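Milestone M4 deliverable, item 7.
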Amino acid sequence: MEGIHVAISAEKLTEWMGIPITNTLLMSWVVVIVLTIFALLTRYRMKLVPSKVQLVVELMVENVFSFIADTLESKELARRFFPLIVTIFVFIFTANMLEFIPGVGSIGFIAKEATQLAGKTSGGEFIPLFRSMSTDLNVTLALAIISFLVIEISGILVVGFFRYFHRFLPFGAFKHGIGNGLIAFFVGIIEFVSELIRLISFSFRLFGNIFAGEVLLAVVTFFVPFIIPVPFMIFEVFVGFIQAAIFAMLTLFFIKLAVTDAAH
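Output delivered:
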């Protein structure tokens, strides 16, 4: 009986012009296609007199927009960042939910390369055609970089370049004394390091939780394939939702911190 195969990095399927095509990249294309089809269907089914489903969706959108506006204390800023925040949540949540579709992680092929162990040669390992997008650190890091750049650029555009970076390099504090200046300078360095650490915290939080859940499901399904995995799958659906919400809300809150000086 074969054991459980767990690969931290995404498996390479093929390459195009020297660019590796992995199973998580293929899954990300599926997510984009699903969301595009959903958006087009939603767009063409919208009516002036809303149906019950459309009314519920409009109410949800209105509540989310109001929450973002209250957080940023500005409807103008909410209009700017609402599409980004919602897109981040919907993209990550959809990717996490597609993990439970039959075939994801189970449909694939056997690699041609054979492996040799203790003088015995066996066939190549199984490579799934589709793999959960969030279990690839490259994907979560890319999302973290996008969020990081939006936060920093938003702070610069709203607050101003020099005023924004004054929080990291507060040389003006030295006019109140060398002691106060040194304290403010070291606080600025700590603040700058914390900004960079967000790249790690954003990417590893999402990657770690989703990857751990996938491994847990694989182990439970391997040993007890019937009934028992269902509660774990329900829990992972909840985790997928929470992680998408956390990623989006942290982006919102950090944007709030970046533009705070403009409102005071």
